[in-house]
Amino acid sequence: MARNNYLTYEVKPRKILGKDRWIATLRLANRCSFDEIAKEVAARTSCQSGEISGFVNALAYEIYKWLEIGENVEIEGLGTFYPKMITKMVDNVEDATIKNCISSITTGFRPHTDLKNAIKNAGLKEYTKAKLINTDKEE
After folding, report:
1. Is 55 part of any domain?
2. Using CA atoms, how far apart are residues 49 and 40, in angstroms rounded to an integer?
């Protein structure tokens, strides 16, 4: 599959308070499968895709384990995973219970600076079907 070195966006209409407004939104491509990533990593290393799969599963297990006990997990070049709790404020200390205060518990992620910069530097190109067809012919 040919890769582009840019993100595509399109301008979409929105009606806000009865007025027509316009907003630029990223066009996200289809999700990349884990198998595709494992094959790509295997091609760049001396490992087989099955070994990559085993490594990532073991890595995920370790991340889960550390997050479950409240630790941040930093992976150099990728970013930091951390436990995150979404809470609500209450007026009285008696109302400050798990049921009343905690909306959800989830995982947060702060991308590494290099990862953020990769997206910032990817470049943007406006999406239109005509431009997409012309781009495909050039590759």
Report:
1. yes
2. 8
Distance from C-alpha of 37 to C-alpha of 53, rounded to nearest angstrom: 9
pLDDT (tens digit, 9 = 90+) per residue, 117-135? 888 888 788 877 654 444 4
**48 in any annotated domain:** yes
Q: What domain range is 53 assigned to? A: 32-71
Q: How many domains does the chain have?
A: 1
For the whole model, what pTM was predicted? 0.68
Q: Note the pLDDT tens digit of each residue in 8-55.
A: 888 888 888 999 998 888 887 778 888 898 999 999 999 998 999 999
Q: Using CA atoms, how far apart are residues 25 and 13, in angstroms rounded to an integer?
A: 10
Give one DSSP letter per residue of 69-107, joined into a string: TT--EEETTTEEEEEEEEE---SSGGG-SHHHHEEEEEE
Residue 37 within any structural domain of the chain = yes
Q: Are 38 and 52 in contact (CB under 8 A)?
A: yes
